[in-house]
Amino acid sequence: MWGEGIEDGLLDGGMVLVGEPFPGKDALLPKVLESASALDAQKIACGNTHSVLVTRQGQVFSWGDGSGGKLGHGLEADISNPKLIDALGGLDVVSIGCGEYHTCAVTLTGDLYTWGDGIHNFGLLGHGNEFSYWTPRKVRGQMEGICVTSVSCGPWHSAAITSQGQLFTFGDGTFGALGHGDRCSTSVPREIEALKGQKAVKISCGFWHTAAIVEVCSESESHNSLTGKLFTWGNGDEGQLGHGDKLCRLSPNCVNMPIDTSFSQVACGHSITVALTIYGQVYTMGRTGCDHENSHTSPRYIEGKLRNCCVKDISCGAHHVIAVTSTSETFTWGRGRNGQLGHGDNADRDSPALVKALEGKQVKKVTCGNNFTVAICLHQWLCAADYSVCSGCRGPFSFTRKHHNCYNCGLHFCNECTSKKSLNASLAPNLNKLYRVCDDCYPKLNKGTNSRVNSRPPKSRSLRVYGDSSTEKKKESSVLSRLSSVGSFRRRSRQLSEKSQKLDSSSAHNSPLYGGNLGSERLSTSVVNSCERINASLPRSKSSHVSTKSMNSLLHQSSFQSHPCLEVMGDSKQTNDDLHDEISFLKEQVEVLTRKSELLAAEIQGTSDQLNEATAWVEHESAKNYAAKEAIKCLMNQLKDMASRGVSCRPHSPFGDSTCHVLNIAK
Predict the structure, then answer these.
(1) Angle at alpha carbon of residue 341, lines to 364 and 267, rounded to 5°
(2) In the structure, what pLDDT confidence band is assigned to residue 566 with cuts at 50, 70 and 90?
(3) Checking phi first, is residue 116 left (phi over 0); if not, alpha (psi -120 to 50) or beta?
(4) What is the pLDDT of residue 207?
(5) Which of 35, 152, 523, 605 shows the smallest number of beta carbons within 10 Å?
(6) Which helix (H) or strand (E) holds 534?
(7) How far apart are CA 213 and CA 199, in angstroms?
(8) How many CB atoms lie within 10 A of CB 49?
(9) Is residue 99 within 8 Å of 144, Cβ to Cβ?
(10) Alpha carbon of 221 to those of 218, 261, 263, 395, 604: distances in Å?
(11) Helix (H) and strand (E) counts for the chain?
């Protein structure tokens, strides 16, 4: 990963300090995401400040900025390392997409799940309401029973392709980015009518425009074949639609290209569209955002260092482009103010430039966030000998020298090199429990743990005037253990007030000046005289030791008895500090629980509505069933009456045969 906020930032395992939303620095060169090095990542999607990856097993991990619940973990907390989304456990995810405030996922069974911030009035999540969902929720309604194969997210709208090639869009329709022929927003997925009957195979959502590759039957001289044509719509103020002008298109329009040009991939940024042909050629429309670059309203073939290269994968950020060739060479160009190009500087590039830091790497997949870039590289092959020695001290494993895995990086270590345990290990089954980690990962996981946003503030220590004896330490620990609720604080305050009253009364009874200087002077004089008498009665070898020891202990007692208010003040200060810390912590819990209760209330309301509908339907069907039974009874009674009267039946009557049979038997 490299680009904006990657260096020691939230997307790179960094810690967020209170009051600092995103402290990371820009990474000018590609940097390995160590917390995800043990995950077999296959796909990755990036938003503005969060990322989501899919493993080979279909598991989904997310990390980054958690505002709006877009990480899918059921809360708005920021996550600095990839964390498994438990709500998608057991579902094999095949496609993923990240927007500015939301995330989408498609499972192997064709179900579409969305989650994140849904408070906007254009239905960003596609559930037909304006609720925010902090965990993945299945999109129902019109999508029920439809098999979705892929999804793409822009900051304000989303698009999904089905197995039949249907294209659905939902979200903000400003500038016609949804392709429905108007500028209206929709809170539920809606099929694009202009592409009905055609098969969409690829889709990409930009900021305010959308691009899709649609298979079109082309008639050639020899035979008919399917060609991937590029369709674009939405905002075109920088020529990013590729139609030769800067006009807005409210519905999909095919980009004019030679008949033999067939596209296989497409990517959209802020004001640029990038398309890749089946022969590895790259075309761009619009502009990347460089100060001295002109916008191109028609598709422009990218040459330069890509002239003789076959590109196999492309991606587009807000203002930069990345391309990977068949020989695993990586090229980037566009705006580089945040180091998102990976060349070690902040300079812009007008033409493709080789990322030298990735030379020798087997780049498999590339993805761009708004101002940062991610590349998935194949793991290096390790021989069997590499698993027979410790990755730390390089000592060989044996029957007595067992090997252990680090739950953060996944490498093999001996017991001495994994003697420490830590929370929040990236491969830990439970992030709230301690697991073995190596000596290199331990300081990274515990870096800034005291300054986490969700960490509980430490309790202040009590102020004591007298010595730290073991008895006093036990008392202090027992006091701190009792300070776990507001009620215990009140009881402690009541005990302290009673204690201070007793001490005040005892000092007033023993001293005529109520604990003044005169009383303390008299007590000190009596202590000295008693020590002198003890020294006189003991041998000379022990007199000095006993006098010193007894003098110190008695002076401590005299100072405590003459100044009882010091302990009370110290305990009161401790109580107040702990009370404030506890109240602040409880307030945070109340806020989290309030948000969860609101979400659950919305879920309950929806379930209740469904239950009411089902109950009404059952009552309606029951009434129809009862009416049918009554009608049958009435007809049977009529038949019996007719049979008893001897009325002849007619062939066209539905009960004619049975009635004639009854009459014949009666005769």
Answers:
(1) 60
(2) very low
(3) left
(4) 93
(5) 605
(6) helix 517-537
(7) 9
(8) 25
(9) no
(10) 10, 16, 21, 69, 62
(11) 7, 32
